[in-house]
Amino acid sequence: QVQLVESGGGLVQPGGSLRLSCAASGSIISINDMGWYRQAPGKQRELVASITSGSSTNYADSVKGRFTISRDNAKRTVYLQMNSLKPEDTAVYYCQMVVTVPNRYTYIYWGQGTQVTVSS
């Protein structure tokens, strides 16, 4: 069984910063792509940023230049550094990992979500 546990959300003023973390645990052979998604009230879940096993990154246009995704393979952890936060960044943020497990199948796992609120 694989679990993803997120941390780092909270309330921050506009222009502030937060760092989200998501750590995987369980029976894991390898972790391929990792990513962060977010869902604001009344809106669909959207991709914020992703990083491949080779550390190639991809960002939504709305966060380019402000957010940075990174990974620590030894810790099985993905991070999202969020700077210059705006009220429109307010959402529940979910991490996602594409994981190969001992039976050699690959599955997509999600974290439980962490609330990020940007408000003065």
Please, could you describe this protein's structure?
The protein has 120 residues and is mainly beta. 0% of the residues lie in helices and 57% in strands. It is built from no helices and eleven strands. The chain has strands at residues 2-7, 10-12, 18-26, 30-39, 46-51, 57-59, 67-72, 77-82, 91-100, 106-110, 114-118. Strands 2, 4, 5, 6, 9, 10 and 11 form a seven-stranded mixed sheet that branches. A hairpin with a 5-residue loop joins strand 5 (46-51) and strand 6. The chain starts with a strand and ends with a strand. The relative contact order is 0.33. The mean pLDDT is 97.
Structure characteristics:
11 strands, 120 residues, mainly beta, 4-stranded antiparallel beta sheet, elongated, 7-stranded mixed beta sheet
Annotation, overall tally of beta strands: 11
Order of helices and strands: EEEEEEEEEEE
What is the percentage of strand-forming residues?
over 45%
Mean of pLDDT: 97
Largest sheet: 7 strands, mixed
Rg, nearest Å: 14 Å
Distance between termini?
Answer: 40 Å
Q: Choose one word for the global shape.
A: elongated
Please give the share of residues in helix. Answer: under 10%
Derived structural class:
mainly beta
Helix count, per DSSP? Answer: 0
Unreliable stretches, pLDDT < 50, 5 or more residues?
none
